[in-house]
Amino acid sequence: MTALWGMLTLLVSGATCVYQEKGRPGLRPGYGKALEERMSLMENNMDKINHSIQEVLNHVLPDRAASNTTTSTPTRDAGLLGSNIDGAQLWQQSQQLPELPYLPSSPLMERLPATLSTTAPLATDSRLPSIQVLQELVELFFAMIHPFAPLFCKQNFIANMFAPDRQVLLHGVVAVSFRFWKRQAPSAAERESFVRVSREEVLLKTIDVCSLVSTQALALLALDAIGQGPGPRTLNLMGMLVTAVHQLGLAKSRSSTTPETNTPLVRNEDPDDGMDSSNVQVEEKRRLFWTIYGLDRFSSVSHGQSGGIDTKTVKLSYPSSDLDWGQSTVPEWFQAGLQSKPAHAHCNAKIWHHNIDLLALLDRSNQLLIQPVNLSLPAHCQEWQSIFRRLDIAMSTWFENLPAEIRDRPTDFDPTWVMLHATFHLINIRMYTVAAFPSTTSPYLKPSSAARGRCRQAIRTVASLASSLQPHELDRLNPMFSFVVWVAARSLIILWTTGYETAYGSMPTDLEPLLNVLRQMATRWLCAQRYADLLQLILDTKNNPGGPTGLEIFNDTRRTSYGLQNLLGTLAVPPAPDAFSGSFDFLDMPLLDVSDFGTSRMGAFGAENDGDWL
Ligand SMILES: *[C@@H]1O[C@H](CO)[C@@H](O)[C@H](O)[C@H]1NC(C)=O
Ligand SMILES: *[C@@H]1O[C@H](CO)[C@@H](O)[C@H](O)[C@H]1NC(C)=O
Ligand SMILES: *[C@@H]1O[C@H](CO)[C@@H](O)[C@H](O)[C@H]1NC(C)=O
Ligand SMILES: *[C@@H]1O[C@H](CO)[C@@H](O)[C@H](O)[C@H]1NC(C)=O
Q1: How far apart are alpha carbons 428 and 409 in whole angstroms?
Q2: Looking at ligand 3, which atom is closest to the CA of residue 377?
Q3: Which region ranges are annotated with the description Disordered (predicted)?
Q4: How far apart are CA 189 and CA 269, in angstroms?
Q5: Which ligand is nearest to the CA of 49?
């Protein structure tokens, strides 16, 4: 203690004590307090260091943690070195002997490059939760998020989760999975702080790197942002992701059998695709691409912009099934505009294939809705209408051609099946809402009453799909499901406030189940809360003398939800505490550029009966 005190004194003054003639021994006033503060700081730090050491020891000492670490390395304990060595011992050994070759114990692991598998577990970064919490979070991630964003081979992920070069993935998992945490500890405040730190870490660690792992982490962060709602953060992350797709060449896989016929004369290095990567890595790349493709499509729709990935440039096969991971069957090639044929793939992979086809249709419909039209030119309007009709037919053909096992609801809950059907209805509702309630009309583009009826039908289907889902099933859905529900609810309110719902005055049928789903999903995803708040604003003020607050903004189909949030968000909700909570969005159609042209909406409704264009 005395020695420590002396040391501290030296630390503080930084010089030897020289007593001046008039100076007095002892501490100058104020010094004691400063020293006390530094001491307790040091004690705290020592405690933390002790804690970290204990954690590392727990992980590497076989007698302490044998039973617990083996659960995380299920593939390593069978039949190694003649004796029954458990995972913890193997980890310890590989730490001492990093050059120890990895001994495969399953055909899948065999394909992994040795360097990946022999990495020692790291003493995790103190900015991450404890190892035990991390392990539970990873399990939560695979249970709740991974089914709709199946980026990883789980076996591979778990076996290498503490490898230093994959730490950024743990940050991604923390950012996206803590919302499902049910235990008391870590506390809500601690969890929030872990999430905040991990969001920053992923950004910091992916700005200077572009690799498969960094892009996987970025995809998780983008999913997290999309779950908070549209806004600059989501747009920026999507921009980074799309750039990474180009840098890594994820949209194209070189095939030895079909050499490229057209060669650019100037280009970057080809990414060394498939050269020395395992089948698992090739499949992870493919899945990363198709996951980003889905994020990009939904993000572009909810922001009213065109997507960052041009479907025509995609030269890649569909993802392969979870059971196979590209080991034995070669998946079919994706071709824009062609519906995937019923293949030998496992059902779950097949749903994903059809979803990919549907996302291409989502993109086409979005392009149509955001494309500017000159309403004073009959030819422009006719062309727009004919593209609309072609797309409408393509949509119903797509649905009719679905194999029965994809069209009919499976007995077991399947989040990808729900999302596939929700996406189909989303496309219809967006298209029909614009056709039924164009924000500007002209003699050449009149509101369509047929579209109004079909819009109502699609809303009814979404409401019945939504109300058939149990709370624990809603927990397992992509946050974009809440966007679909919101689009349906907003269109329903437009129908209602324009007098096409008989129940005006109370609440239109089907609105309640849609709102319930949003409230339920809001416990996990902030975007659902914001959608619910906006709808509630209209409902709460529906009896106001001047009509519901902000209705003319709410029901203008040209408005982006981004704009809607900016204009109505403060009325609807107290400002969100989260600094990253961007803003809102919806139908988003800067469709009709010509502002002072055309008759008013209501005026045009009268003329509907003389022939519907749809
Ligand atoms: C470090 O922590 C362990 C258990 O948490 C405790 O038993 C030990 O006394 C601590 N050591 C010091 C120096 O604080
Ligand atoms: C393993 O973890 C559980 C809790 O997860 C704990 O109760 C148990 O004591 C641990 N066992 C060892 C050997 O550390
Ligand atoms: C739309 O077409 C009219 C008629 O040709 C033309 O006068 C007008 O400038 C066009 N508007 C825009 C925004 O291009
Ligand atoms: C939207 O709100 C305005 C103003 O409240 C109302 O006149 C109009 O009928 C509503 N519906 C549509 C589709 O514009």
Answers
A1: 19
A2: 2
A3: 253-278
A4: 46
A5: 1
Collapse the DSSP code of 29 into the 3-class scheme (helix H, G, I; strand E, B; otherwise coil) and give the result. coil
- Residue having the nearest C-alpha atom to atom 10 of ligand 4: 498
List pLDDT tens digits, range 392-408: 999 999 999 999 989 99
For residue range 469-497, what is the model confidence (pLDDT) as tens digits?
999 999 999 999 999 999 999 999 999 98
Report the distance separating Cα 312 and Cα 297, nearest Å.
Answer: 14
Q: Given this model, what pLDDT does residue 303 score? A: 87
pLDDT surpassing 80 at residue 545:
yes
State whether the Cα torsion 257-260-261-265 is positive or negative.
Answer: negative
- Residue-wise pLDDT for 191-250, tens only, equals 999 999 999 999 999 999 999 999 999 999 999 999 999 889 999 999 999 999 999 999
Q: Are 438 and 591 in contact (CB under 8 A)?
A: yes
CA-CA-CA-CA dihedral for 531, 533, 536, 538, to nearest 10? -80
Closest ligand to residue 551's CA: 4
Work out which ligand 2 atom sits closest to the CA atom of 68.
1
With 0-12 / 13-18 / 19 or more C-beta atoms within 10 angstroms meaning exposed / middle / buried, residue 171 is buried
User: 54: Cβ below 6 Å to ligand 1?
Assistant: yes
Give the H/E segment covering residue 552.
helix 551-554
Residue with tokens 């004690």: 43
What is the distance between the alpha carbons of residues 510 and 463, in angstroms, rounded to a whole number? Answer: 6
Counting beta carbons within 10 angstroms of the beta carbon of residue 1, is it exposed (0 to 12), middle (13 to 18) or buried (19 or more)? exposed
Query: At a CB cut-off of 8 Å and minimum separation 6, what does 333 contact?
Result: 315, 316, 317, 318
Ligand 1 lined by 44 (C-beta under 6 Å): no
CB under 8 Å to 71, separation ≥6 — which residues? Answer: 135
Which is nearest to 207 in space by CA: 231, 177, 241? 241
CA of 376 to the centre of ligand 3 (A): 7
Sign of dihedral through CA atoms 176, 177, 180, 183? negative
Determine the length of the chain. Answer: 614
Mean pLDDT of 39-58: 86
Closest ligand relative to 63 C-alpha: 2
Distance (angstroms) between ligand 2 centre and the Cα of 65 equals 7
- Confidence bin at 97 (pLDDT 50/70/90): very low
Q: What is the pTM of this model?
A: 0.73
**By alpha-carbon position, which residue is closest to atom 5 of ligand 4?**
552
Q: Can you give the pLDDT at residue 16? A: 58
Write the residue with the smallest CA distance to atom 11 of ligand 4: 498
Ligand 4 contacts (CB < 6 A) are 437, 494, 497-498, 547, 551-552, 555, 601-602
Ligand 2 in contact with 67 (CB < 6 A)? yes
Q: Which residue has the tokens 């995609």?
A: 314
Which conformational region is residue 14 in: left (phi greater than 0), alpha (psi within -120 to 50 degrees), or beta? left
Instruction: Provide CB contacts within 8 A for 521, sequence distance 6+.
Output: 474, 477, 479, 481, 482, 485, 528
Q: Which residues have C-beta atoms less than 6 Å from ligand 3?
A: 374, 376-377, 593-594
- For the chain, the domains span 232-255+276-594
Ligand closest in space to the Cα of 495: 4
Q: Please tell me the predicted confidence (pLDDT) of residue 547.
A: 83
* pLDDT tens, position by position, 495-506: 998 888 876 557
**Predicted confidence (pLDDT) at residue 294 exceeds the cutoff of 80:** yes
Going from the Cα of 460 to the center of ligand 4, the distance in angstroms, rounded, reads 22
